[in-house]
């Protein structure tokens, strides 16, 4: 079982294509790519923490969750109305979480923290909300799709990034 992180999918929201300069010609293309990217890496037995801002319409969330692999946990974002959290398909819904993952203490929430629990002891902060536009602090990572190639990431991927290939 692998644990994955993602944020700011904003399924069904045409505004994100323009505001965040997403490389999609339509909402349908964006939504399909986000689902395909998720299911390409997340296995049915995996766990995914969605750090908020799921979809424009809460009524779309149950069908989306049914189409996505893994056990899904939501940490609500500023664009998640009550209906998003109430949708069937979430393993849990909260505003904040702390995990011990692979021997690392990890703090999770939609918003980036200036300081977080156990920060001085090496804890890691994973967040969304800033769409890749916030300068990170040490051990702080934006897991929003705009900052991470439009798909979920693991802690290992964040801590040990693979440099892009350079043409010969």
What does the radius of gyration come to? 15 Å
Widest sheet: strand ordering = 1-2-3-4
Q: Number of DSSP strands?
A: 8
pLDDT under 50 segments (min length 5)? none
Distance between the termini: 37 Å
Characteristic terms for this protein:
168 residues, alpha/beta, 4-stranded parallel β-sheet, 4-stranded mixed β-sheet, 5 helices, 8 strands, 22% helix, 22% strand
Describe the structure.
There is one protein chain. With 168 residues, the chain is α/β, with parallel strands linked by helices. It has helices at residues 15-19, 27-41, 61-67, 82-86, 155-159; strands at residues 3-6, 47-50, 71-75, 90-94, 96-101, 104-109, 124-127, 140-142. The protein has a 4-stranded parallel β-sheet with strand order 1-2-3-4, with no helix packed on it. A 4-stranded mixed β-sheet has the order 5-6-7-8, with no helix packed on it. Strand 5 and strand 6 form a beta hairpin. It is globular, with a radius of gyration of 15 Å.
Helices and strands in order:
Blueprint: E1 3-6, H1 15-19, H2 27-41, E2 47-50, H3 61-67, E3 71-75, H4 82-86, E4 90-94, E5 96-101, E6 104-109, E7 124-127, E8 140-142, H5 155-159
Parallel strand pairs: 1-2, 2-3, 3-4, 6-7, 7-8
Antiparallel strand pairs: 5-6
Task: Give a quick precis of the structure.
By secondary structure, the chain is α/β, with parallel strands linked by helices. It has helices at residues 15-19, 27-41, 61-67, 82-86, 155-159; strands at residues 3-6, 47-50, 71-75, 90-94, 96-101, 104-109, 124-127, 140-142.
């Amino acid at each position: 079982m692998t644990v994955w992180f993602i944020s700011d999918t904003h399924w069904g929201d045409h505004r994100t294509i323009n505001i965040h300069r997403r490389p999609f010609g339509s909402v349908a293309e964006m939504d399909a790519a986000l689902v395909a990217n998720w299911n390409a890496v997340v296995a049915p037995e995996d766990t995914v923490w969605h750090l908020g801002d799921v979809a424009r319409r809460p009524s779309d969330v149950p069908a989306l969750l049914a189409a996505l692999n893994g056990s899904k946990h939501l940490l609500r974002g500023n664009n998640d109305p009550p209906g998003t959290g109430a949708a069937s398909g979430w393993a849990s819904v909260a505003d904040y979480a702390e995990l011990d993952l692979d021997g690392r203490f990890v703090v999770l929430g939609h918003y980036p923290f200036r300081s977080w629990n156990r920060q001085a002891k090496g804890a890691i902060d994973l967040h969304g909300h800033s769409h890749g536009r916030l300068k990170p602090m040490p051990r702080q990572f934006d897991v929003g799709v705009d900052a991470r190639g439009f798909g979920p990431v693991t802690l290992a991927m964040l801590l040990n990034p693979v440099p892009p290939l350079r043409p010969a």
